[in-house]
Amino acid sequence: MQKNQPKTPTFFQSIMPVVLMILLLGLNILKFNGSPHIPLIGGTLFASLMGLYLGFSWKEIETGIVNGIVIALQACLILMVVGMLIGTWILSGIVPTMIFWGLKILSPSIFLLATCIICSVVSLVTGSSWSTAGTVGIALIGVGQGLGIPLAMVGGAIISGSYFGDKMSPLSDTTNLAPAVAGTDMFSHIRHMVYTTLPALFIALVLYGLLGLRYGQNTMQMGKISEIMNTLESFFQLSGFLIIPVILVILMVILKIPALPALLGGAILGGVFAVIFQGATVATVLDVAQNGYVSHTGLESVDNLLSRGGMESMLSTVALVMCALAFGGAMEKTGMLPVIAQNILKLARSTGSLVAATVLTCICMNVIAPDQYLSIIVPGRMYRDAYLRAGLHPKNLSRCLEDGGTLSSSLVPWNTGGAYMWATLGVYPLAYLPFAFLNLITPMISIFFGLTGLTIVKNDGEGNVDKPASQMGG
Predict the structure, then answer these.
(1) Contacts of 198 by beta carbon, 8 Å cutoff, 6+ apart
(2) Nearest in space to 139 (alpha carbons), one of 106, 102, 91
(3) Distance CA 174, CA 227 (A)
(4) Residue 367, H or E segment
């Protein structure tokens, strides 16, 4: 007997699992102070039941779930390696050395501004927000904590700087992916992103400078800072040579060595340096790589700062990523995700609404199908023909994909980007979200330009003539 074809879901049927998942997430996180894991599983269960109702077999749904998780296996491996790197870099004195010099050089009044600039430069050179957060970001969190600056603000400054380079560097995978999906070349794409990203960075730097003024007169912290620095000097052999692994990891990323072996190499170097500089045994290095570093200095602020890392510390985050992508896989396989996308596309009847729909769809994709790459690929495929029909240059689409997709991924706790930053920096994404100014402001500027027609470029049919589209309407 021939199997009946599954039914196409209605918009109401498609949106129901999303609404239920959001309600469960809100209830569990806000009321019960729980984690997102179980609500995401609940959303996956409801999406699967809806798929069975539509006529899909469990085998088909299960395949969709597994395929959704497979997308993030590399990210899961990187997370575990970063856990090892954090542990061995603390044990070796690499992180304590960077914290010590950071406390010595940076003052509270300029710290947030300097943090954003440092991360912007490193991420622009490496093309990787993850590598930036996993190297200098770890140290800057410690410096900020020592200076008495709220970690949510520090996390926001790190995220803003890290994602500036992730978005603008030709070495970044998303900077290569977005124009490829949209149908334009990378350098046209980068030049077009300047209009939205540089103003957002300038505004962010001004805001970080103003926030820093609140802590400029914080003289009460100086005694605490000296105490932290003295403790670090007493319990670790601090040396400029300990910065070598950081430089080597950044160089490996610049030379386009994939993130996984580059970060694993950094973790191994951390272990070697722990033996050389701190006199650690091989057994201690292996234990810290697995279970993390536990500080026993007797100074609570330092112990809280340094007791972290290890592969085990990342397993909850790995589980979170898998739960989230299981939901996205079920929604994709059963056809509910495309139906939601098609209904959004119907609302885009002008240049302004098309740009706004693209940016908002990318953001929603980071929530529903929580992976940064999916938030670029799926909307890119959806809107490519719509931009061509509207006579718009493909670089308008590629810019929107990055303005909405790349920058919002780190703001969603269960997205691969947000989960990584949460696990690496130790700051909850919803806590640093209000201070991730670049990530918040850039999509707003992008939508504003779409509504006004500013910097929107028409296509001449060959994709190589830039004509203002301000006359097309908002």
Answers:
(1) none
(2) 102
(3) 43
(4) helix 351-368
Amino acid identity of residue 249, one-letter, is: V
CB atoms within 10 A of CB 54: 18
Q: Is residue 255 part of a domain?
A: yes
Tell me the C-alpha distance between 112 and 378, whole Å. 35
HEC profile for 295-342?
CCCCCHHHHHHHCECCHHHHHHHHHHHHHHHHHHHHHHHCCHHHHHHH
Amino acid at 335: G
- Does a structural domain hold residue 25? no
pLDDT tens-place string over residues 416-473: 899 999 999 999 999 999 999 999 999 999 999 999 999 999 876 544 444 444 333 3
Judge whether 149 and 215 are in contact, CB under 8 Å.
Answer: yes
Q: Which two tokens stand for residue 38?
A: 């179980």
Contacts 24+ apart (CB under 8 A), 452-455: 452/352, 453/351, 453/352, 454/195, 455/192, 455/195, 455/196
Q: Which two tokens stand for residue 399?
A: 């810019």
Dist CA 293 CA 290 (whole Å): 9
Backbone angles phi, psi at 299, to 5 degrees: -100, 115
Of the two residues 30 and 453, the one the predictor is more confident about is: 453
Question: Whole-angstrom Cα distance, residue 190 to residue 19?
Answer: 36
The string of pLDDT tens digits covering residues 306-363 is 888 899 988 988 888 888 888 888 988 998 988 887 787 777 778 899 999 999 989 9
Q: Which two tokens stand for residue 71?
A: 């997308």
Q: What is the three-class DSSP state of 457?
A: strand
What's the rounded Cα separation, in Å, for the pair 354 and 391? 12
Cα–Cα dist 87/346, whole Å = 50
**How far is the C-alpha of 161 from the C-alpha of 115, rounded, in Å?**
7
Look up the domain containing 234 and give its range. Answer: 73-314
Query: How far is C-alpha 4 from the chain's CA centre?
Result: 42
Residue keyed to tokens 């001004």:
206
Domain count, the chain: 1
Q: Is residue 281 situated within a structural domain?
A: yes
Nearest Cα to 13, choosing from 62, 60, 52, 66?
52
Answer whether residue 67 shows pLDDT above 80.
yes
Do 458 and 444 touch, CB atoms closer than 8 A? Answer: no
Q: Where are the alpha helices (DSSP H) in 183-294?
A: 186-213, 221-235, 244-254, 259-278, 282-291
Taking only Cα atoms into account, the Rg of the chain, rounded to an integer number of angstroms, comes to 23
| Mean pLDDT value of segment 84-108 | 89
**What is the C-alpha to C-alpha distance for residues 64 and 394, in angstroms, rounded to an integer?**
30
Residues, the chain: 474
The helix-helix angle for 315-333 and 37-54 (nearest 10°) equals 20
Angle at 314 (CA atoms; ends 262, 268), nearest 5 degrees: 30
| Stretch (H or E) spanning 84 | helix 73-92
Is 345 part of a structural domain of the chain? no
